[in-house]
Amino acid sequence: MEIQSKQGIIQAQQALIDKTARQLKASGDIAFTDNQIHITSDNMGLDLASGSLSLENTEYQMLGFVGRGQAQHIDISNQTGINLEGVSFTTCPVGHEDWLIKASSITLGPGEIWGEARNTRFYLAGVPVLYLPYFSFPVSEQRQTGLLFPTLSSSDRIGVSYEQPYYWNIAPNYDATVSPRLMSDRGLQLKTEFRYLTESHNGQLDLEYLHDDRRSDLDEARYFYRFVHQGELSENWQVSAEINGLSDDNYIVDLGSDFYNRADTHLNQNLQLWYFSDNLNFSAQIKDFEIIGNHPNSYRAIPELKLDYHQDLTSLLEFRLNSELAHFENGEQDSPSATRLHLAPTVSLPLHNSWGEFVAEGTLLQTFYRQSLPQGSNLKESVSRTLGQGRIYGAVNFERQIELFGDQMTQTLEPKMQYLYTSYEDQQQIGRYDTSRLLNDYIGLFRGQEFTGLDRISDSNQLTLGLTTRLLDDNDTEQLRLSLGQIFYFGDTRLSDNNRQEDRSALAAELDWRISSKWFVRSQIQLSSVNQRVERSNISLDYKLADNKLIQLNHRYVRDIAGNEIDQVGVTASWPLHQNWHWVGRWYKDLSTHRTIESFTGIQYQSCCWALQFVAQRYLSNRFDALGEQSNDEFESGIALQFVFKGFGGKDSARSLLNEGLFGYRHPYFLNN
């Protein structure tokens, strides 16, 4: 039989109603269900006057979240909620109770997001490990104030570390996390995170503070701060900010960071305002840096204003104006500062259709400089530079149906060509404020620029040729992409900053190949046109059965970057060892110095309701000495341990282990899916 009451639905084999006492008693395969809990019981009593329900010798399953257990006695009332006595609780399935909570009573108040347990004993594999006289736990998926799961780790630089986060749900659109971190070798660090979200704005403020570092020679506190913000001021106006700072060069190296790594040389300090419309875009920003280590101070753009306007002149011709006004300084008295105004009006003829495109355009590059110079400078206070630039670009797409290894495929052939001419003007009287040399890959061959920024614009008379071929299956999934390209120069450049002597650029090639459903190759290479030596290359080979079952081999090489050679080989792997065990490993070796630069291994045990992660790694410390010089010879080692109860929050994904350490796992190809 089935009885529907205000409390929920009651099912039982027999039921007896006492009209005088207004009570209902049921027996035999009793089941009770409401919007919070499903209960099976031997005996049940319902007070029809008060609406209170009592059940004996029960088993229950929570419906609002993962959780189940047994109870000797359960009382359910609209006024007091749910009260369980002699109760057990777990998120594990029946017969696999890896962890279990037993309590004398558990109370779930009506409308409450926390449950309360008294005289609580925690069991792991049937063994009692902890007793708490009072314990509260979440009973919904809402964000809730309380302790998060801690992190335990150990390393050469900090000793044993215990971090205990506490989450504060301030309001539906505000929250904070406070994480005291006790380090045996360094002391007590406080880490805080504050987040906010409004209808038009969102942001985050992070503060980290260590009052007294026992292992540091510094006599002052160590700290790190970070503030990020994004927002809409109106339909067309947006604002963003990113501000970072730290107390000393070795803060990230010694104490770690969730936002930067040991190889970073500066922290960003940006404030930006945008305006967008159909024909006009405007941005104003302040670009500053916090320099880490003994590196030359970078020039700050304080401020940088950009205005871009475009308009159709006719059905074929377009007009575009790109303009910029910026002031540069780097805080050094013996370095020049400058205000730069750049105007670049362009008239273009763009033609596009499904089988190709053609663009012809002419641009006037007009730049004005007002420079504040130190004594003895060879620069000029006022400089006006006028350059003309013409560009013709064309691309055609061919395709045909072919049969390859018994499969019908679509092959494309996509030749492209670009002719670029830029006039010459001597630019030695202009300082270099935001300009450095660019490295060319296949896409960069068609960029038409040798430098970043505007302080150096190289004269050019060149032809760029490129060819791409693709193979697509019946589902239009890209199985292979091969691209080759090169620039041919019709004469030497006259710009002294560009010491190119060859009549052609390096040959740039890129390959993306989905060999099968499990094997993938991604490769890039630049081959010198003078001596046919490899200038830069990287290649990765992936074997991937699933997101958590993969092996990647990779190699990268750069012949000359800032006077150094990079020649590194590495392997990354993620593989299940057993039904509940998972392993992740990573190893990188520098072939130039014949040494391992990083080794990392992680083991995770994951059951249906809890997980345990153990990580060990060794890596270059990259510490700075008193002069700000970075060491390339010191190594550090560390281990970390994390325990997670499923159903109570926390990270338990084995794949997250892949993203830790100096080199994280990256998907090796850019084929469309």
Task: Note down, in words, how this protein is organized.
With 673 residues, the protein is mainly beta. Helices cover 1% and strands 61% of the residues. It is built from one helix and 40 strands. The protein has a 26-stranded antiparallel barrel. A hairpin with a 3-residue loop joins β16 (174-183) and β17. The longest helix has 5 residues, at 251-255. The radius of gyration is 33 Å and the shape is elongated. The protein starts with a strand and ends in a 28-residue tail after the last strand.
In brief:
By secondary structure, the protein is mostly beta strands. The chain has 1 helix and 40 strands. β22 and β23 form a beta hairpin.
Protein traits:
eleven-stranded antiparallel sheet; elongated; 61% strand; disordered C terminus; mainly beta; 1% helix; 26-stranded antiparallel β-barrel; 673 residues
Q: pLDDT average, as an integer?
A: 86
The tally of beta strands, per DSSP, is 40
* Rounded Rg: 33 Å
Helix content: under 10%
Q: Quickly give the structural class.
A: mainly beta
Parts with pLDDT < 50 across at least 5 consecutive residues: 648-655, 660-673
Dominant shape: elongated
Report how far apart the termini are: 54 Å
Alpha plus pi helix count: 1
The proportion of strand residues reads over 45%
Quick one: biggest sheet? 26 strands, antiparallel, barrel
